[in-house]
Amino acid sequence: MDSTRWRSTSIIALSVITLGGILTATLPGSAVAGPSGPDVSSWQHVDGRFIDWFAVRRAGHEFAMLKATEGLNYLNPFFVQDSVLMRTAGVARGTYHYARPNLPPEPQAAMYAAVVLGQNGPLDLPPVLDMENAGGLDPAGLIDWTHRYLTTVQALTGRVPIIYTYPNFWKTAMADSNQFTRYPLWIADYRGNDQPEVPGGWPNWTFWQTTDRGSVPGIGGGTDLNVYSGAQGDFARYANNGGLMGSS
Questions:
Q1: Is the distance from CB of 95 to CB of 87 less than 8 angstroms?
Q2: Domain contains 58
């Protein structure tokens, strides 16, 4: 998820619709079969066009990860429309904040939580922290920053956050810290192996971003593709299918 592709402003809204059935899909370059979905930002809205979320769902994708915020001054200008339309189509919504560790973590967590309005309604996956920028901090400082952000977001949303990262970043910028294994891992690994590399002492991965060059019906631009491992149990429950489940 390259933050340099996404710049603009927005306001937020929330919509809830019940998810239909669960299909099974296999992502390109992956031997893992399971619930799948893209992750999107303003970059996927080529020439300002809407994403056809019904086409995304018909293609077999049960979820999508949606960029919400970055740092202290960026709101995805398509966050509202995507949040509403993807739920209307029956696509479970994950949302993520792109970390800017050169800025304090608590205000970033508060801004994200205000934008997503809790992240624990029907068709909501837990909040995600996108960690791929050290912000000039050394590993000790970045580890402290990450703890503070995650603690604040969990307090504000009532759900255990997911960490998105890629192996080399975690092993270098985070000194391969094993202090975060209580948080589900969303790992980016595009090498086409049967399983991704898992850093930081995590016993397993929850989401795997298998490629940044995917193509999905209904999305005009290229997009990242992801698969769910089942590590957090039944996907419908994890995505608050029908709003029957509370916080993680």
A1: no
A2: yes
